[in-house]
Records
---
Amino acid sequence: MFTGIVEELGAVLSHDRKTAGQGGRLRLTCREVLADVERGASIAVNGCCLTVVDWDVDGGWFEADVTDESYRRTDLAELAPGDLVNLERPVRTQDRLGGHLVQGHVDGIGEIVSPAPDLEVIVPDDVGKYLVDKGSVTIDGVSLTIVEPTAKGFTVAVIPHTTEATTLGRKGSGDRVNIEVDVMAKYAEKLLAGYSGHGEAS
């Protein structure tokens, strides 16, 4: 579980895509998230929870395997050496919950219409139905508050600190981003489905 408060910007050192059904492996530069790293640890990369399989604290990098399922659901397949990524370690029970509860399970890929600070993103219909005015949403691992849902997506206001500390300040129109909706909305839909008589809440 994460909070959507990015700890540092990392960069792609290498991206080894394997044959179909074999996934791939990312090697990413970083410093802060390696402070207490161990094999099997989780680190969110652009909002996608990945598992550390190898690392070098002195060299300042870690590696994570990426499954074909993760490639299908996220924009990780598009990462190339030199690309910057948002990194966050899981929240600990004693930590403050500065953002909102983020699972690191990407729900879909959005496309930026207008860049930060007045960021507008379009999303697939099956993602958009969970977005509400002043609700929480995660964009590339960054916890944000929705300003207004739109016909095809939503808008958010991005403060200067966030544009500097995350990749969002470097994204432009047409760029794709990972979207995770508030998990509480999905639970509410599931619970209400039984009262609607249909497969999902109406």
---
Amino acid sequence: MKPLNAGILASFAFGAAALFQAAPANAQANISGSAGFSVGMMGYSQTDHDEGAIVGDFAFDGNIGFDLGGWNVMLDVNSVLHRDNRGDFDHYAPWGVTSFGLHAGRQFGNAYVGGFMGGNAFQGNDASTSNGYITGTLWGIEGRIEPASMSGVSLFGQLGRANMVGDAGDTAFIGNFARFGADYDAGNGFGFTVAAEFGRSPNIFEDSGDWGEYRLATVEGRLERGNVIYSIGGEMGQFTANTEDFATSNRLFLKATIPFGPKPKRNLLKTPYGPGLAAAWAETLD
């Protein structure tokens, strides 16, 4: 991580700690979170090498949050791996991506407003090995609201900036991104979440001076029984490099999540991994 980015992260962490210092002295800290694991299948196609395949995959995610007097701080990690063992990722498809982040903000009644800072670990040609991973940074603002007139509904959104360099001076995703969606709790343990994410790198993608963009959409239905949340869902992705090349990826998965703490909540404001995944696809499409 570059010193500047490390300094930003340290400042953000210091600010999060200051929020807790500002909380009322008699406030009680509530610690909550969840851990999830999923298995699935991912099918992809890409035009640069005219390749496509269906491969198995797995993913995990976890978060832990601290709620103190209306102030909130959360750490999270989200990782998906769909390994294609036929050769180097830049001839076929990225093997996977991991996001990690620190979130901090304030609860105002039924609304939450905050910010996040973190990174993506993704595959790039600047890595030490042919299929190795490197890290880029991202940061932004986020919010969540439970409208009083929409029982069981939570709306959420994130706006951010990413700096993901796969091959210095050649391939990268450096640009803005957005993620937004809705969650519905239907009662009796049933519910579903939908989300959309998109981003654009205007001046570099598969080559310096070119543009690239990505789009991700997820749908997940769930059933909570006992201390476990069972889910079935899908993630659809599209990655475009200029007007020359594009790739698609479609993933179906089954998931089990174990929440913990006095006020466990689904992590609707997870750290996005779209920018890092797009940077890895830029390498493949180059």
